[in-house]
Automatic annotation (TrEMBL):
PANTHER family, per database record: RESISTANCE PROTEIN MDTM, PUTATIVE-RELATED-RELATED
Segments crossing the lipid bilayer: 7-29, 35-60, 132-153, 159-179
Lipid bilayer topology: Multi-pass membrane protein
Highest taxon of source: Bacteria
Protein name (record): Major facilitator superfamily (MFS) profile domain-containing protein
One GO MF term: transmembrane transporter activity
Keyword Endoplasmic reticulum on entry: no
A single Gene Ontology CC term: plasma membrane
A Pfam family: MFS_1
Length: 185
């Protein structure tokens, strides 16, 4: 990966997103309680995310390969995720939370397979295990860091600051991909 610009761009953009998402990670249940929900709403809203992601993935499986610039699907997924995190600031009821989780499911269905396709497309032959291991190492470390830092941010600055920060990082991930020359990705 030393000279693989495409993988570096993918690593950085997705590491920024994963870090951002894990800033909320385990605090999601606390957030849902703050908007008046309980354990059941945490479970239902999480299930809605997975179900909607699954349903959108069925559509992506048929449609996604027709898109020429798959990088744009990844960009769109980061933008939708950023907007969804901003929506958390305004959520006051369970219905709005559920609708945001559906949008997160859409973003997940756009982003996750696209990242996998782009990663696989640019992986160096005879270094596949090393490069997948490098990605696992990077993602695990940024998830751990995001989880810890998220608690500090919420404790000292609150959820709204956290959501704006996460959204900003999602948009940075999107623009990192968008403004990378296509020859490099």
């Amino acid at each position: 990966m030393r000279n693989n610009t495409a993988l570096k761009v993918l690593f950085v953009s997705n590491a920024i997103y994963i870090f951002a998402a894990l800033l909320l990670g385990p605090l999601y249940a606390v957030y849902v309680q703050r908007i008046g929900g309980g354990v059941l709403l945490v479970s239902i809203s999480t299930a809605v995310f997975y179900i909607s992601s699954t349903l959108f993935l069925l559509f992506m499986a048929r449609w996604g390969d027709r898109v020429r610039e798959k990088e744009l699907m990844l960009v769109i997924s980061y933008i939708i995720r950023g907007l969804c995190f901003l929506c958390y600031i305004f959520i006051e009821n369970a219905l709005f939370l559920i609708l945001v989780q559906v949008a997160f499911g859409l973003a997940e269905s756009l982003g996750t397979p696209t990242f996998g396709v782009l990663f696989s497309k640019h992986i160096d032959k005879k270094e596949e295990v090393m490069e997948f291991s490098d990605w696992a190492l990077v993602s695990n470390l940024v998830m751990a860091l995001g989880t810890i830092l998220g608690g500090f941010v919420v404790s000292s600055l609150g959820f709204n600051f956290l959501f704006v920060s996460i959204a900003t990082l999602c948009f940075i991930s999107a623009f990192w991909i968008l403004f990378t020359p296509r020859g490099d990705l």
